[in-house]
Automatic annotation (TrEMBL), chain A:
Keyword terms, alphabetized: Membrane, Transmembrane, Transmembrane helix
UniProt protein name: Heptaprenyl diphosphate synthase
Transmembrane segments: 6-23, 30-51, 71-95, 102-126, 132-158
Lineage top rank: taxon: Bacteria
Keyword Transmembrane helix recorded: yes
InterPro entries (UniProt xref): Hpre_diP_synt_I (IPR014535), Hpre_diP_synth_I (IPR010898)
Pfam families the UniProt entry points to: Hpre_diP_synt_I
From TrEMBL, chain B:
Domain of life per record: Bacteria
Record protein name field: Uncharacterized protein
Transmembrane helix as UniProt keyword: yes
Organism: Halolactibacillus miurensis
Keywords assigned by UniProt, alphabetized: Membrane, Transmembrane, Transmembrane helix
Transmembrane segments: 12-32
Length: 183, 146
């Protein structure tokens, strides 16, 4: 993949994630009984990036999305919460993806739960009390369900959008190349 | 619907189970912390200010505490034999009276209409901030129920 092609693809994924995030903010939360719970549709893009781009470029997508979303619709405190959430979910998804036989559904559910964990860790540090963490089961059970749903969506995107096959093939090719160089 | 479930593998199901366990870890840590403390205290809070803080071991017999407010609201709390219960209240839902007696650290009786919280803690290091956070969660949840 040429450098320009890669840049455009990263920029496209990041901007799609920002737009999906902004549109999601306009939809009233379906989880009225649990303040703070949301659908996390932008997770679809992170999953797609994880499966079609190298780790370094996936991180670029996540960071660009985070910064743009904060500039467009956030404050410093939401940046702290979503930043820590994005970092935790990215690391969790990366780890789970390397486990054997895990499909995109497990990766996406892990991302959702670790996003909540990251957010609540920041919240309990800000409030200086551990009891905020007791809210985790409510958020993460909803997160697992929405994570499964976004995982199914990402699975169908990866399999039905033909252009993405090209990037997936490229990624496996690149990994094979690196292995050969090391050998 | 079944074709969606066919996408998931056995490891996915295992991961989801692990995630559910992880999400309940804070409860385990919280109760381990609370039960390790020695002395139990009753903390009575109204409008997020602490009114009474009594060690359960200081009360030999039965003690009755009444929380009155200017607008005619009252809550009567009975403490006896290491147990605490809301004896009487003139709130409109009576949830606090019906919630029964509490005796172990971390348990609470909440009277939402009068904003009274009766809580048992293991130590007397209950800083006001902690109560603020707990009660704000209770109040936000309570608001969503109404």
């Amino acid at each position: 993949m040429s450098n320009n092609q890669r840049l455009v693809y990263i920029a496209l994924l990041a901007s799609q994630a920002v737009i999906i995030g902004l549109v999601e903010r306009m939809i009233p939360s379906p989880f009225f009984f649990a303040p703070g719970a949301k659908l996390g549709l932008a997770n679809i893009i992170t999953c797609m990036a994880l499966y079609t781009l190298p780790v370094k470029d996936t991180m670029k997508v996540v960071v660009i999305r985070l910064l743009l979303q904060t500039l467009l619709a956030g404050t410093v405190s939401t940046f702290l919460y979503s930043g820590m959430g994005a970092l935790a979910s990215f690391l969790g998804m990366l780890f789970v993806k390397h486990l054997p036989k895990v499909s995109i559904i497990g990766v996406s559910a892990t991302g959702a739960v670790f996003h909540n964990i990251g957010q609540l860790v920041v919240a309990s540090l800000v409030a200086n009390t551990f009891s905020v963490m007791l809210y985790l089961p409510v958020l993460s059970l909803i997160g697992i369900l929405t994570g499964i749903a976004t995982g199914i969506a990402a699975h169908y995107l990866l399999h039905r959008v033909e252009r993405l096959h090209y990037y997936m093939d490229l990624k496996t090719l690149e990994i094979d190349d690196m292995k050969e160089v090391r050998l | 619907m079944t074709r969606f479930f066919k996408l998931a593998t056995v490891s996915d199901v295992l991961i989801i189970l692990v995630l559910i366990v992880i999400s309940f870890l804070p409860f385990a840590v919280f109760y381990a912390q609370q039960s390790s403390g020695g002395e139990r205290f009753v903390v009575i809070t109204k409008d997020q200010t602490v009114l009474h803080e009594i060690a359960l071991s200081d009360i030999d017999d039965t003690e009755q505490i009444t929380i009155d407010s200017d607008d005619g609201h009252y809550n009567t709390i009975n403490i006896s034999n290491g147990e605490v219960h809301m004896h009487d209240a003139n709130c409109n839902d009576q949830v606090c009276v019906r919630s029964g007696a509490i005796d172990s650290p971390g348990e609470t009786i909440v009277c939402l209409p009068h904003k009274v919280i009766v809580e048992i803690t293991a130590k007397d290091s209950t800083d006001d901030q902690e109560i603020d956070i707990i009660s704000s969660f209770i109040f936000t949840k309570g608001l969503h129920y109404e």
